[in-house]
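New here. Your pick:
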Amino acid sequence: MATSRGKYLNGVAQSGKQSCPDLAAYDDPKTELKRWRLLDDHGRQTWHYLTSDEEEKAWPQTTADKYFLEIPIEHPILPEARSPIASVKNAISFFSLLQLPPGNWACEYGGPLFLLPGLVITWYVTETPVPTPIAIEIKRYLFARQNPNDGGWGLHIEGESSVFGTAMNYVVMRILGVSKGDERMIKAREKLHQLGGAVNGPHWAKFWLSVLGCAEWDIVNRVPPELWYACLPPCVQRSKVTGQRD
């Protein structure tokens, strides 16, 4: 889970390119970080929010859980590396603390701002309930990455506000229950209108808006099947025609 607390230090993005919105200025609900657990089922990683003290005791947080939630972890002080092999040994010592039970490592897939909207829209159209703790942290995550100057969202967390990012993440916020009267949402709409509206979005934006029913399918740019065929490797093209693979 990419937390809303992550990637920013003292209100400034670690890249130094863009300041962070002041979430403390708003009375948004938030979850307790100590209740989150990362479950790794043969490489399929999912976050789970525990709702009772009994559950917490039965399923203690791991070092990896704390690391990804940016909760301070206890780890030995490693000696300063003065050679390449010493650096490697330090890296092995540290990352061995984060290894998950199946033997693999988790990683935060934070950064892109165009993947989460597809997931939330899919939940909505398939009438899949969104657990309250997940919805809370999605909203906090996106508000933390909203451009504090113009109210939009970009293609990724360091990108300039775009039609794609702003339209899609505005939709996510509304699906998850953020009021259209929220001043941050008003600011996002103003930026979207300034950019020409959602109809100026790229293919994916038009596709997801059409899936949602907010737009007609006519706005989606059609992709001739010949283009897909031309992009396939020659061996796959021949198999389509002959039924045999090389």
